[in-house]
Design goal:
CATH class: Alpha Beta
Shape: globular
Distance between the termini: 20 Å
Bound molecules: S-adenosylmethionine, 6-(5-methyl-2-OXO-imidazolidin-4-yl)-hexanoic acid, iron/sulfur cluster
CATH architecture: Alpha-Beta Barrel
Order of helices and strands: HHHEHEHEHEHEEHEHEHEHE
CATH superfamily: Aldolase class I
Number of strands: 10
Length: 343
Amino acid sequence: MSDICSDPSSGSRSDFSSEINADLRHDWTTEEILALLQQPLLDLVFQAQTIHRRHNPSNSIQLATLLSVKTGGCPENCSYCPQSAHYETPVEKQPTLSVEEVVAAAQRAKDLGATRFCMGWAWREIREGAAFDAMLEMVSQVRSLGLEACVTAGMLTDAQAERLAAAGLSAYNHNLDTSPEFYDQIISTRTYGDRLETLDRVRKAGITVCCGGIIGMGESLTDRARMLEVLANLNPHPESVPINALVAVSGTPLEEQKPIDPLDLVRMCAVARILMPQARVRLSAGRTSLSREAQVLCFMAGANSIFYGEKLLTTANPEQDADRQLLADIGAILLEPFATVSS
Ligand code: SAM
Ligand code: DTB
Ligand code: SF4
């Protein structure tokens, strides 16, 4: 990564002026958010970039690498997900990875420049036992490498959240995916309320919250606005907000969905940035369908993280070489591990 500058000011916090405080709201209305989403694109990007620079003066981009530790066979019926046991998809159920395999992958990710390592389990919820003990060990060892550790493994109890926090977990990913109104057309095996309850448990345990959603599932613009509204009205805001474009996988109920217009992703990144000025807005699934220029527009709009590595959980992501080249070509400043939210 020698051709990409590292973040000179990571760890520093900007002064909290009244302007900065005024940007941090938790009372957004659907109408306000819809108006933002429908602004002329360049006005929207300008507004988002202005807020972005005010809150993130170092303008750094974070590289997060994903690894699927337990793949496939999930009892939930999320219509977008190739790992659901409800659908016949190209994903084969595989043996759960060992602590050693996971730590070796985390070391490789670190060597290639990632600062956050995100581990996924295709579970409805965490259960006590050997697999959870192994998860705690993975978290602790990933942290020992000097990486942020993130887990996504479905619902959890207060006690499990506390044990994950004690193991050093930096963040827990649990997405709202879409609006409360559209949710039951996408998933029926759990409720929006279940999702919010889990987020609450994560927050209470002192773990940072990674929560976002997906566009391109057939939702309306109002659904997009409503999802952003629920996210932005969480207090505090999620520290990171993944914005995914649906990867339509054969065998899932959403296999025939038309690809989104990349400019819609730019709009989502911009509005997420305006509503949650200090969050890491992560341009997540769907990047293989974006041109370099569309990705740069997302960065202009305030996206400041990507998943980095040739695979997401089970589907393709851009080649690492291509990402490194893109970041070098735009002179991206990369985030150091554990930098503060405002760096
Ligand atoms: N089972 C856990 C859960 O549901 O929280 C963790 C894994 S799940 C794969 C994490 C997130 O990935 C989902 O909430 C969804 O937002 C995203 N995701 C899954 N499949 C996707 C797809 N085909 N396209 C875009 N995003 C997807
Ligand atoms: C998130 O919002 N997106 C990532 C991560 N959080 C866990 C997962 C995307 C998965 C895309 C489909 C797959 O690769 O299986
Ligand atoms: Fe299971 Fe998570 Fe996929 Fe839903 S998104 S089917 S909970 S792995």
